[in-house]
């Protein structure tokens, strides 16, 4: 629970949703997220885990190499991250929202002192109405750009900060049944009580831009469920997707925190 009894929500936004499946970060999508946060701010408090640093950098530079080597991706992330934050800042500022940046790596969650520092920093930011925008510190850790584990970073952060809900925004209407995917007639699994039954529905498909595919989202949801936190997997390309999910106006996957 956030300050003044507000519901604390962690929004993880993947590269696919941020680019609206193009090769460019969508300023319109970032504005759409800001508008929703602004409309919901009396009842909800948001923490954002945002991918997109590498995608932004690719708009500006071409580094030597084929762009797939890990060290080249790390350099692209270092170039893109300040631009990503500038785009968040500019769009959110117009809406009266304040932004801040936290770069974290998994190892930080294993050291008690670092865990405490992350908690202290983010809690002070939230108390002062600064929206924390988190990404992995790709200079010191490569897990996420190898495996797409911004999803896991979102789960670890959600648990540490005791959020009420995690929304993972991607480019599908949640998790589809495997049969429906094979037949190209996508059908969403809307409610999941037993997360173990989901495993058989996952294909190893990944979109051309994202890294983790659905597996890393389910792994994240499992960590969250073990900590009694609900996860929603939502299509972030839709305008107003957070509000529409809250009002049950779109189809998405809800992974309950209890069996
Ligand atoms: N059962 C499933 N339902 C929906 N998507 C799936 C499923 N199995 C694999 N996928 C793939 O997972 C992709 C989303 O993950 P990813 O590409 O890593 O996106 P993001 O950038 O949002 O993290 C989908 O575009 C799809 O190709
Ligand atoms: N830290 C990287 C994130 C890469 C990543 O995991 O992307 P995604 O699978 O879209 O969540 C970046 O900002 O580009």
Automatic annotation (TrEMBL):
Keywords: Amino-acid biosynthesis, ATP-binding, Cytoplasm, Kinase, Nucleotide-binding, Proline biosynthesis, Transferase. InterPro entries: AceGlu_kinase-like_sf, Asp/Glu/Uridylate_kinase, G5K_ProB, Glu/AcGlu_kinase, Glu_5kinase, Glu_5kinase/COase_Synthase, Glutamate_5-kinase_CS. One of its GO terms (cellular component) is cytosol. Pathway: Amino-acid biosynthesis; L-proline biosynthesis; L-glutamate 5-semialdehyde from L-glutamate: step 1/2. Its EC number is 2.7.2.11. Substrate binds at residues 51, 138, 150. It catalyses: L-glutamate + ATP = L-glutamyl 5-phosphate + ADP. One of its GO terms (biological process) is L-proline biosynthetic process. It is an enzyme of class 2 (transferase). Pfam families: AA_kinase (PF00696). Its main location: cytoplasm. ATP binds at residues 12, 211-217. Catalyzes the transfer of a phosphate group to glutamate to form L-glutamate 5-phosphate. HAMAP family: ProB. Belongs to the glutamate 5-kinase family. This is Glutamate 5-kinase. It comes from Aureibaculum algae.
């Amino acid at each position: 629970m956030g300050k003044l009894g507000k519901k604390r929500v962690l929004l993880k936004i993947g590269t696919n949703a941020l680019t609206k499946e193009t090769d460019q970060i969508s300023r319109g999508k970032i504005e759409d997220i800001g508008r929703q946060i602004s409309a919901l701010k009396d009842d909800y408090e948001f923490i954002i885990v945002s991918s997109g640093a590498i995608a932004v950098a690719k708009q500006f530079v071409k580094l030597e190499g084929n762009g797939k080597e890990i060290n080249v991706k790390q350099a692209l992330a270092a170039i893109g991250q300040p631009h990503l934050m500038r785009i968040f800042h500019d769009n959110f500022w117009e809406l009266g929202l304040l932004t801040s940046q936290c770069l974290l790596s998994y190892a930080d969650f294993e050291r008690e002192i670092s865990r405490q520092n992350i908690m202290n920093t983010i809690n002070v930011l939230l108390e002062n109405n600064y929206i924390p925008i988190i990404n992995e510190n790709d200079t010191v850790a490569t897990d996420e750009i190898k495996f797409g584990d911004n999803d896991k970073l979102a789960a670890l952060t959600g648990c540490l900060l005791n959020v009420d809900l995690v929304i993972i925004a991607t480019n599908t209407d949640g998790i589809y049944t495997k049969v429906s995917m094979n037949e190209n007639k996508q059908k969403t699994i809307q409610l999941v009580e037993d997360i173990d039954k989901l495993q058989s529905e996952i294909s190893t498909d990944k979109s051309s831009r994202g890294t983790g595919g659905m597996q890393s989202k389910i792994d994240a949801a499992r960590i969250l469920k073990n900590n009694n936190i609900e996860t929603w997997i939502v299509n972030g390309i839709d305008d107003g997707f957070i509000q529409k999910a809250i009002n049950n106006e779109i189809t998405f996957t809800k992974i309950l925190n209890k069996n």
